[in-house]
Amino acid sequence: MKREDITRIIEQEKLVVVIRLKYQNEVAGVIKNLVEAGIKILEVTSNTPGFAEEITKARQLYPHALIGAGTVINSKIAEIASKAGAQFLVTPNTNGEVVDVAHKHAIPVLMGAMTPTEVCNAAEAGADFVKLFPADIMGIDYFKSIKAPLDHVKLLAVGGIDLDTVGDWLSAGAAGIGIGGALTKSVTSEEALEAVKNRAAQFIAEVKKYG
Fold first, then answer.
1. What is the pTM of this model?
2. In this structure, which of 40, 85, 89, 137 has its CB flanked by the most CB atoms within 10 Å?
3. Cα–Cα dist 201/55, whole Å
């Protein structure tokens, strides 16, 4: 799949689920639950133990989902993630070297930024999306203030977003949202699994209102 194709899917789906776990043996189950719930774009963060191995396994098991790597803070992690098969890279910071590595491997970057300068630097470095992070701390009014003069940048909102605020961010012009803890808890019972799937379905339905 070409970088442009992956970028287009992310734009269409508008929902990226962030998987950050303490134990590697929980990752596969969480990914399985999310994919079965209908989530199509997932990132496994680099501070999740065995993240590269889990990305490789997920790519093989779920060819119809996009599996990326998160918390890619430097070029070294970017190379590891790309070679593991990550289909996109996500950063919490602004680092042009990550873009260089990603584009060398023909995959897009969702680059973290907080200030107008960082947003511009990320865009000028070639980031395919710029991720306002942490979105909940900065707030929607701040997002709108940045979006107004920089409306050529595809801005994502990530951090502290829940079902009650999804619509607010997308209405404000976010190209998409990232969510984590609300969906990525490891579950061991059928009842808990159904709760995760139901919540995922709610997020998907809410995002589709703004498709």
1. 0.96
2. 89
3. 23
Q: Which residues of the chain have pLDDT under 50?
A: none
Number of residues in the chain: 211
Per-residue model confidence (pLDDT) at position 192: 77
Give me the residue spans of the domains in the chain: 3-208
Considering the segment(s) 3-208 as one domain, its CATH architecture is Alpha-Beta Barrel (3.20)
| Count of other CB atoms within 10 angstroms of residue 115 | 12
Alpha-carbon torsion angle 182, 129, 124, 44, nearest 10? 50
CA distance 42 to 19: 7
Q: Quote the pLDDT of residue 171.
A: 96
Q: What is the pLDDT of residues 62-108, one digit of tens each?
A: 999 999 999 999 999 999 999 999 999 999 999 999 999 999 999 99
CA 176-179-184 angle, to 5 degrees, is 145
Q: At what angle do helices 51-61 and 75-84 cross, to 10 degrees?
A: 30
Q: Which two structure tokens, joined as six digits, stand for 161?
A: 């977003």
Question: Cα–chain-centroid distance for residue 14?
Answer: 9
- Give the pLDDT confidence score for residue 92 in this predicted structure: 97
